[in-house]
Amino acid sequence: MAEYRNPTPTVDLVVLLPGDRVVLVERKGEPRGWALPGGFVDEGESLEAAAVREAREEIGLEVTLEEQFHAYSDPRRDPRRHTVTTVFIGRAEGEPVGGDDAAQARPFPWTALPSPLCFDHAEILGDVRRYLLTGQRRRL
Amino acid sequence: MAEYRNPTPTVDLVVLLPGDRVVLVERKGEPRGWALPGGFVDEGESLEAAAVREAREEIGLEVTLEEQFHAYSDPRRDPRRHTVTTVFIGRAEGEPVGGDDAAQARPFPWTALPSPLCFDHAEILGDVRRYLLTGQRRRL
């Protein structure tokens, strides 16, 4: 049988904290900079389980997932390899603590997000913000 | 570096035809039976491009994608390997013709879908039908 190559599934999380804030992580590895918490999905793990696990590992918070938002799959979205990320919206309480691949984790007010962000995460946050404010989902 | 194993990304399509009908395919391979058209996403290909390609190959129709609906990732959803499928809703005109992995392709009225369906496709169709009728998306 021919061997096919497929993109790799990941999850990313928009974690909402009280006070209209969202949690970002400063990445330890390349590309450096601020990004959404997230990571690879393991074989045998659902997207939802991966999202909860990544939040625990990278920002030290127990997240309650509220929604599967959208999957982003542009082959150029990550310079290292082709990933397909499913983005979740969740809520948590408490203060985030960076761990695993995150040098630090910090809540930002929506009105003062750092720029630029890694990958397509500025686009994702723009889409989520619009959705939270208007109920309008990202179009294809 | 340790080697990690990840699930494989796929797409499945709910293709709506005029007359409140949806297109299903009869699978050539195991597991046999009726299912949604769909298949593996290639490296370098977006989910949306994969969905349009699979519709062309399996049911011979040019589909206009309307929505990314939901991603289903239960590790038990496919007995052969762990797949994460992103489901699209699209529209097409004309009559489907089975090709590639499909022995045949046929439109069914929503009120007379075959049963059982392969994989979790009955659940997916139930979720999509509810969404089309009520605007209510699948909850986590």
Q: What features would you describe in this structure?
A:
The structure is a homodimer of 140-residue chains. With 140 residues, chain A is α+β, with helices and mostly antiparallel strands. Chain A has one domain (10-134): Nucleoside Triphosphate Pyrophosphohydrolase (Alpha-Beta Complex), CATH 3.90.79. The first copy, chain A, has helices at 47-59, 121-134, and strands at 8-17, 21-27, 33-35, 38-40, 64-72, 83-91, 102-109. In chain A, strands 1, 2, 3, 4, 5, 6 and 7 form a 7-stranded mixed β-sheet that branches. The first copy, chain A, is globular. Chains A, B: GO terms for molecular function: hydrolase activity. Chains A, B: Belongs to the Nudix hydrolase family. Chains A, B: This is NUDIX hydrolase. Chains A, B: InterPro entries: Nudix_hydrolase, NUDIX_hydrolase-like_dom_sf, NUDIX_hydrolase_CS, NUDIX_hydrolase_dom.
Shape by Cα distribution of chain A: globular
- Regarding quaternary structure, what we see is homodimer
- The strand count of chain A comes to 7
In the CATH hierarchy, the architecture of chain A is Alpha-Beta Complex
Low-confidence stretches of chain A: none
Provide the CATH top-level class of chain A: Alpha Beta
How far apart the termini of chain A lie comes to 34 Å
**Largest sheet composition of chain A:** 7 strands, mixed
- Show the largest interface: A-B, 28 and 28 residues
Considering the protein shown, what is the CATH homologous superfamily of chain A? Answer: Nucleoside Triphosphate Pyrophosphohydrolase
The chain-level mean pLDDT of chain A equals 95
Beta fraction of the residues of chain A? Answer: 35-45%
Share of helix of chain A, binned:
10-25%
Backbone CA Rg of chain A? 15 Å
Quote the CATH topology of chain A: Nucleoside Triphosphate Pyrophosphohydrolase
Number of domains of chain A: 1
Class from helix and strand fractions of chain A: alpha+beta
- The tally of helices of chain A reads 2
